[in-house]
Write a structure and sequence with these properties.
Elements (H helix, E strand, L loop, with lengths): L1 H23 L4 H12 L10 H22 L2 H6 L2 H24 L10 H10 L3 H10 L6 H23 L8 H24 L1 H8 L3 H21 L4 H12 L5 H25 L6 H28 L3 H11 L5 H13 L4 H23 L1 H14 L23 E4 L3 H13 L1 H4 L2 E5 L2 H9 L3 E4 L5 H6 L7 E4 L11 H11 L4 E5 L3 H10 L3 E3 L1 H17 L3 H12 L8
Parallel strand pairs: 1-2, 1-4, 2-3, 4-5, 5-6
Helix pairs in contact: 1-2, 1-13, 2-13, 3-12, 3-13, 5-6, 5-8, 5-14, 6-16, 7-8, 7-17, 8-15, 9-12, 11-12, 11-13, 14-15, 14-17, 15-18, 16-17, 23-24, 25-26
């Protein structure tokens, strides 16, 4: 026991020290945990030598990792996924896995007769890192953009794909129809039992203990281990049971509270899993390094080949098709989980798992850099592809300064997000004549398609590029409006945009938004005629709501808002 406690202490200290270093270097902390485990493990410093400790640490961490992944899978989002996400997911996940299997089979990796190296490598290359992607997109405030939503939708469906693979993984060495059907039946029993209990029993139990945080935490852990042991009794893996337990718990009313209670414990054991995984990595041979580099190259190429074409064919434009492919270009932490299970089942050699671990490390660094600079990469890629003759959405667009009758738009909305969406909805209902004077310039393909369908003039293009502004007819417009805050602008700021607009059209009235009070003076100095501060409008609305509440008229205030929202169909809901 003392040895295990010492080993856990060493792992925790190493993870914390290297985690701080990773934060300073702006690298994923998972990378730090793997490196920390590698350093303190048997291959380098030999501070942790007990194989039993390593296996115990890794298994506990893996169970909690899968339980929390299950908790965060939103089944409703999967059901509501649009055809764009569903079609691109089918291409990326199934296409990527099939291409990977064929590629590694051609290279001589076995598949069958007890060895499944090609299968595991192909599936590992088809999965992307949720932890890295969500962290970078969150920092860049791009989770709510179209490429961000497509990326997140693909990640959720990747998790669903892994669940299906885990169902058959224990029976790979005996894949007869009868054995496969038996495995599916066992999974069905596991899933049905867990969902029935979570639907009809757990809500009543958690309602009684909701005010006792320690019992909520213990109850969640008990549910996790119940799922693990039920799966074990059904001859499935404990990891599969933990994942199903998490997914089942995500559907009942106390899921958010449970997630909040379990998160800190999850972080600790997930840390132990990746440190434990790092401890199993030996000093690499040239063969392992070569396979890792090959896996990296194939992952990037296959991600582009299976993600970009379906999005482009569904008229999402070059930029919105390229960014998800770029975002998804890394090996998933789930791939490492599958490799660990593969080694434990004897399906693959340890060298395969080690190569996947090194590929994860390499792509974690490279893809983080690429995602951080994704806008510049997407612009360069758009120019190159268009120079090779690939058509973008602007190829068939009518310039915003020409409605077909030679009449230019008097008002140009540069960029289109929620404020512009609400403005268009107000004008459609209250002032359709003014709406006829407006044209929009934006590079969101959803905005382009919806505005075109409504008969509103729109030009597809990037407003941070001078040629887009000139082509849109900036010099002829009377009023130029930017309604997008700085943190959403890509490749520019409102101050820079205003200066550029003023240089092209010295006489136009320019309206722009400010994020902070200090920005107001800078925008006026840059040439803006009026600066919008959304915080003032929100503060006025909040003051009116407070006054209504104090006078007992909050229901009247609510009814006024309901009347404004009634029948409202915005481009961006």
């Amino acid at each position: 026991m003392h040895s295990l406690l010492f080993d856990i202490a060493v792992c925790t200290i190493a993870a914390w020290v290297l985690g701080v270093v990773a934060q300073l270097a702006r690298q994923p902390v998972i990378l730090a945990y793997l490196v920390g485990g590698f350093l303190v493990g048997p291959s380098v410093m030999k501070l942790v030598k007990s194989q039993e400790s390593i296996e115990t640490i890794s298994e506990l961490g893996l169970i909690f990792l899968l339980f929390m992944i299950g908790l965060e899978i939103d089944l409703k989002k999967i059901v509501r996924s649009g055809k764009v996400i569903l079609a691109s997911a089918g291409s990326q996940i199934l296409g990527g896995a099939i291409l990977g299997i064929l590629f590694f089979l051609l290279l001589g990796f076995p598949m069958g007769q007890g060895r499944w190296d090609a299968l595991y490598l192909g599936i590992a290359a088809a999965l992307s890192s949720t932890v890295i992607i969500v962290k970078v997109l969150y920092d860049k405030r791009e989770l709510d953009t179209l490429p961000g939503r497509v990326t997140l939708g693909l990640l959720v469906l990747q998790d669903l794909f892994v669940i299906l693979f885990l169902a058959v993984q224990p029976s790979l060495n005996d894949l007869r129809i009868g054995v496969l059907l038996l495995s599916i039946a066992r999974v069905a029993v596991l899933v049905l039992t867990m969902f029935l209990v979570s639907r009809y029993v757990l809500p009543h139990l958690f309602r009684y203990i909701a005010r006792l945080p320690e019992l909520v935490l213990v109850g969640a852990l008990a549910w996790c281990f119940f799922g693990c042991e039920l799966a074990e009794q059904l001859h499935l893996s404990r990891e599969m049971g933990a994942l199903v337990a998490g997914v089942a718990l995500s559907t009942f009313p106390y899921a958010l509270d449970v997630t909040a209670k379990v998160t800190s414990l999850r972080d600790f054991f997930v840390t132990l899993f990746f440190v434990g995984l790092g401890m199993t990595i030996p000093i690499p041979t040239w063969n392992v390094i070569g396979l890792a580099l090959l896996l990296c190259a194939f992952t990037v190429v296959s991600r582009i080949a299976t993600t970009f074409p379906p999005l482009y064919w569904m008229r999402q434009g070059i930029r919105a098709s390229a960014l998800p492919a770029l975002n998804l270009s890394q090996v998933s932490e789930f791939s490492l989980v599958l490799m660990t299970l593969g080694v434990a089942a004897g399906h693959i050699s340890p060298d395969i798992k080690n190569a996947a671990s090194f590929a994860f490390v390499i792509l974690a660094v490279v893809s983080t850099f690429a995602m951080t600079n994704s806008d510049a990469i997407a612009r360069w890629l758009t120019r190159r592809l268009k120079s090779f003759g690939l058509r973008d959405l602007d190829a068939s667009a009518t310039p915003a300064d020409d409605d077909g009758d030679g009449h230019g738009a008097r008002i140009l909305l540069l960029g289109f997000f929620r404020t512009a969406s609400s403005l268009i909805a107000d004008l459609e209902r209250d002032d359709p004549d003014l709406l006829k004077e407006i044209a929009v310039v934006d590079f969101n393909p959803v905005v382009f398609a919806n505005l075109t369908a409504r008969g509103i003039k729109v030009q597809y293009g990037d407003i941070s590029q001078r040629e887009t502004l000139v082509h849109a007819g900036i010099e002829k417009a009377e009023i130029l409006v930017s309604s997008i805050p700085d943190f959403l602008l890509k490749g520019s700021t409102n101050e820079r945009l205003v200066r550029q607009l003023r240089s092209i059209n010295p006489d136009a009235v320019i309206i722009a938004p400010a994020d902070t009070l200090a920005d107001v003076a800078q925008l006026y100095e840059a040439g803006a005629n009026y600066v919008m501060l959304s915080r003032l409008t929100e503060a006025r609305d909040l003051r009116e709501a407070l006054t209504s509440a104090l006078s007992g008229q909050v229901d009247t205030k609510r009814a006024e808002l309901a009347a404004r929202l009634d029948g409202r169909a915005e481009v961006l809901a």
